[in-house]
What we know:
It is an enzyme of class 2 (transferase). By secondary structure, the protein is α/β, with parallel strands linked by helices.
Amino acid sequence: VGGDIDLxxxxxxxxxxxxxxxxAHYYQSGDIQDIADFVGDSLALAQWAxxxxxxxxxxxGVHFMGETAKILxxxxxxxxxxxNAGCSLAxxxxxxxxxxxxxxxxxxxxxxxVNTSAAVKAVTDVVVTSxxxxxxxxxxxxxxxxxxxxxxxxxxYINSITGRNMKLWDGACxxxxxxxxxxxxxxxxxxxxxxxxxxxxxxxxxxxxxDKIGSTAALLKYATESSAKKFxxxxxxxxxxxxxxxxxxxxxxxAPPNDSTCxxxxxxxxxxNTMKKLYLTLKYELxxxxxxxxxxxxxVLPIKKMLDISS
Length: 311
Ligand code: 13P
Ligand code: SF4
């Protein structure tokens, strides 16, 4: 099976035959987004996984997204097309080091971004995504002592808009750290009427320029509802697919990375998933996400707490 047409019809046949649902993140390639049953941000993917009655969930995203789905649905088969689809942000927070950090700060409530391993979630009080981080932080009294990990940019941003002083883990995403301030300013000069949209994982200097800061879903909603016609988008460039599809009359310009010789505004982990791998995953029901039961039993609590607060 090589051509697109075969792959599409085979994927459609297999998902029906096996009662499988395909969930895709906005950072997947356009063909995967188009064939998915549902496309969304990391919160929406967890919400969909938690309520589906499909027997198999194929999570077209990165490992922590598959893990979150598996923790929420321990009795279902959860597959990801490529198990090597990791996340540099999740990797910037090794569980053993994070556990030490938590142990060294007794009396702190632990809030972790969903971009973490199950083992980090297992020592967390409540999980957040960029969609609900502010709401969840603000659900705690102002005097609450909070550890926030692992993204320092999101943590600093939430501290700045809530007036909190959360203790931050020093992690970051390699895609969002790479956007070039100079090149975005050049684009703004070239297109003065363009609005700048930025994900809170970007560095502060980029966020200071932004007209709208938000999760992938929030940026998409803003672009769709805005009367502006041009947008410079500082997040992984996969989101442009849905932005253009929902807004054919508007122009979306991907914010460039510092290094113009690489496609560094694409997440190399997200892009490991392909249509061919999706087809093979459905066919062989591999690779499957497995989570140690002991860790899953603890990690499910802060994930469910997040879903309860966000519902
Ligand atoms: P969202 O929660 O905005 O979809 O972000 C996920 C992610 O991996 C950002 O890099
Ligand atoms: Fe992780 Fe960054 Fe890729 Fe998102 S874009 S999955 S945070 S490496």
